[in-house]
């Protein structure tokens, strides 16, 4: 038979068709996803299976399967790529909005941009790190100690607030399609993990069942059971003598059995190597890898550990069937992301690059940045400032600092608004000058003279806006900075660096009107400033529109409405030892002293009044209860209020919080307008965790507090708060 060029072409096309696996069952979109996953796994060798359990999973060319890197970040915008993206406020700032509805819009915008990047990158054969669709976000660890540098990545110190905000982020990120995920979220770091950074690979925590279930696990349960998060990242540290990624209680009893989690688990990066390198609980990588997989850790983000799995199977340390269980979870996620289906089959695969930094996303970014800003002090209505001012100085280490507003785990936008640039743009008819003046922490040789000279210059100004605080370059993951107050990414002191106080004291002594704008990822102790500076704003690391939002608040174009997601303590001596995970004397729920600014606190340019609480005097254990309060804007400006509901347990005999957040809602009220706010408290929200970690409702009295902040003791301006006592009757009720 004569072989023609046409015959060769037909043969070549057939080979390509065969190699790409177009005739394999796992390519058949009409089959159930579970059958497709099973078919694919059945075609893999042991070696291929094991290498698919690395975060940088290689291609399987004989089946036409490209490589895939599981590691990607989108903490507050798509992180660490070469694409220009929308950057929203750091997570702690997102939490300060107390606005889960807007947060879901933010995360939906983030996943749109992530999909667009993946679609473009994969079309060019780029499957490298930070280009995939599995995002290791959100960080829902409890910010139990303000010295932890990575607390900025969390939603604050409260389990309830963290759970509500975390669920919104996951739902927006993962989308609403019944078959496909837009992106895959990942709840981290599971569990009992919040510093110190310098020994995170080695420390071993012991907490009571009460603290475990009352503080450290509720947000994980909310994301896993309620929001159906796709992934979980297990932490570096050990808990109860076992590494978290190989922990009987955390990984098997709670995560897989009690909560029924069927998604994938990845180790934190290097955590499996820590089993034998740091924790010394396993002799080598083979034993460590086998134990981690046995406990349900499906991906090794690391260096060597899972490469030992092949030998571990041959040695009988783990079976290939156990490997297949992990493979099923991993490939299920990849199939749910549509990575094995055509562009036409997956609607998310058609999202174009034009969504990056779209006008809609920029509008959302500005909106949530404005809502994140917390007005801490406003003596004699010093703010808002008059736009008719003629001479304004914007000074300080964060006044024109583009790095600080971006936080950590960040992406890079095309434009960044700093406070100086935004204020100068807003005050077109004023003289607006910029002087950095001082650094964050370190005084120079001539600091006293430099401050004196600066004060002389500033005496001519109508107002000085000092933009200080700290920066992500001082706090955060593995920051190699050791300066007074900071070490290895954590803080050794929560006090505002002394050089900044020195400058503000000099401005005060010279009688120069001053506003203090703080950028921070954590609580800062500002005892002197809170007493002497007339106006203080906390602006976090506000993202690309940080400057615009700050200027809008300062000059009254936006009425501030942010609320603190963490307690602002007065001094270092208020804090227990950093390394202790016991919750006694920590966070607003257990700290019984006086604080500068309590959890939930934030002022407005208007005022609000609360009516008495309406609810039954007695309710039966296990029943839902409806609670109503009327809120009126009694001021002259329109404004938002975050109505917060707390509960205390005056008759409970066991360990208990002083009070605990059980509900909140953000409302907008025009001047003079009233609105009824209704809370529906279900049994889970009414219950109290007992010493054994069981959630139950006992008979007896409860007390509700509804208002504009937690009922903590504080030296700050008291915000409206109403109280109501009620009684639970009947038999005790166990909440499942």
Description:
- The chain is of the alpha/beta class and 736 residues long.
- The chain has 21 helices and 28 strands.
- The strands form eight sheets. It has a six-stranded mixed beta sheet with strand order 9-17-16-12-10-11, with helices on both faces.
- A hairpin with a 2-residue loop joins β13 and β14.
- α6 packs parallel to α8 and α15 (419-426) packs across α19 (546-554).
- The longest helix has 24 residues, at 100-123.
- The protein starts with a helix and ends with a strand.
- The model is unreliable at 4-21 (pLDDT under 50).
Structure keywords:
21 helices; five-stranded mixed beta sheet; single chain; alpha/beta; six-stranded mixed beta sheet; 736 residues; globular
């Amino acid at each position: 038979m004569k072989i023609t060029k046409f015959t060769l072409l037909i043969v070549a096309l057939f080979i390509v068709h065969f190699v790409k696996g177009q005739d394999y069952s796992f390519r058949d979109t009409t089959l159930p996803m579970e059958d497709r996953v099973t078919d694919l796994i059945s075609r893999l060798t042991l070696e291929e299976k094991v290498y698919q359990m690395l975060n940088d999973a290689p291609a399987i060319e004989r089946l036409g399967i490209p490589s895939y890197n599981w590691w990607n970040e989108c903490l507050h915008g798509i992180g660490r790529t070469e694409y220009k993206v929308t950057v929203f406020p750091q997570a702690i700032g997102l939490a300060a909005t107390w606005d889960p509805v807007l947060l879901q819009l933010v995360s939906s915008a983030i996943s749109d941009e992530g999909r667009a990047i993946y679609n473009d990158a994969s079309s060019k054969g780029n499957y490298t790190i930070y280009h995939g669709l599995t995002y290791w976000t959100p960080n829902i660890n409890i910010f139990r100690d303000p010295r932890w540098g990575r607390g900025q990545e969390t939603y604050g110190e409260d389990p309830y607030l963290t759970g509500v905000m975390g669920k919104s982020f996951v739902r927006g990120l993962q989308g609403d399609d019944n078959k496909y995920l837009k992106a895959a979220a990942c709840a981290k770091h599971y569990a009992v993990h919040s510093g110190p950074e310098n020994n995170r690979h080695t420390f071993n925590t012991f907490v009571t069942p009460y603290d475990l279930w009352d503080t450290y696990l509720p947000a994980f349960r909310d994301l896993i059971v309620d929001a159906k998060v796709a992934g979980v990242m297990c932490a570096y540290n050990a808990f109860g003598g076992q590494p978290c990624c190989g922990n009987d209680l955390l990984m098997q009893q709670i995560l897989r059995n009690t909560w029924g989690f069927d998604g994938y688990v990845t180790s934190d990066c290097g955590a499996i190597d820590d089993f034998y390198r740091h924790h010394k609980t396993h002799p080598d990588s083979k034993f460590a890898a086998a134990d981690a997989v046995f406990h349900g850790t499906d991906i090794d983000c690391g260096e060597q550990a899972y490469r030992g799995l092949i030998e571990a199977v041959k040695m009988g340390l783990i079976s290939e069937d156990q490997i297949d269980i992990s493979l099923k979870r991993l490939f299920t996620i990849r199939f749910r992301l549509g990575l094995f289906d055509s562009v036409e089959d997956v609607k998310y695969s058609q999202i174009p690059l034009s969504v990056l930094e779209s006008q809609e996303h920029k509008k959302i970014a500005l909106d949530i940045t404005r809502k994140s800003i917390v007005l801490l002090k406003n003596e004699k209505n010093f703010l808002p400032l008059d736009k008719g001012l003629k001479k304004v100085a914007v000074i300080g280490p964060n006044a024109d600092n583009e790095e600080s507003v971006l936080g950590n785990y960040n992406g890079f936008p095309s434009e960044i608004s700093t406070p100086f640039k935004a204020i100068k743009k807003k005050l077109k008819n004023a003289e607006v000058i910029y002087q950095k003046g001082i650094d964050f922490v370190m005084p120079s040789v001539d600091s006293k003279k430099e401050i004196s000279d600066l004060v002389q210059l500033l005496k001519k100004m109508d107002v000085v806006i000092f933009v200080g605080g700290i920066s992500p370059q001082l706090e955060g993951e593995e920051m190699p900075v050791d300066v007074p107050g900071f070490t290895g990414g954590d803080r050794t002191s929560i006090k505002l660096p002394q050089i900044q106080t020195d400058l503000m004291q000099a401005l005060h002594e010279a009688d120069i009107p001053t506003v203090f704008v703080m950028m921070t990822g954590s609580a800062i102790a500002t005892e002197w400033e809170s007493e002497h500076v007339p106006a203080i704003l906390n602006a976090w690391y506000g993202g690309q529109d940080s400057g615009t939002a700050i200027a809008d608040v300062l000059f009254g174009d936006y009425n501030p409405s942010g609320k603190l997601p963490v307690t602002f303590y007065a001094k270092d001596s208020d804090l227990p030892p950093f390394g202790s995970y016991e919750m006694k004397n920590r966070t607003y729920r257990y700290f019984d002293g006086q604080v500068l600014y309590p959890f939930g606190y934030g002022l407005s340019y208007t005022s609000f009044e609360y009516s008495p609480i309406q609810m039954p005097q007695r309710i039966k254990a296990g029943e839902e209860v409806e609670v109503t309060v009327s809120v009126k804007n009694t001021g002259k400006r329109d404004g938002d209020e975050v109505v917060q509901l707390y509960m205390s347990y005056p008759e409970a005999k066991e360990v208990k919080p002083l009070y605990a957040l059980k509900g909140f809602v953000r409302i907008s009220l025009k001047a003079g307008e009233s609105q009824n706010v209704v809370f529906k408290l279900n049994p889970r929200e009414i219950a109290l965790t007992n010493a054994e970690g069981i959630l139950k409702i006992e008979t007896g009295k409860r007390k509700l507090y509804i208002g504009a902040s937690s009922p903590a003791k504080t030296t700050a301006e008291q915000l409206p708060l109403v109280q109501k006592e009620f009684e639970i009757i009947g038999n005790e009720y166990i909440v499942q």
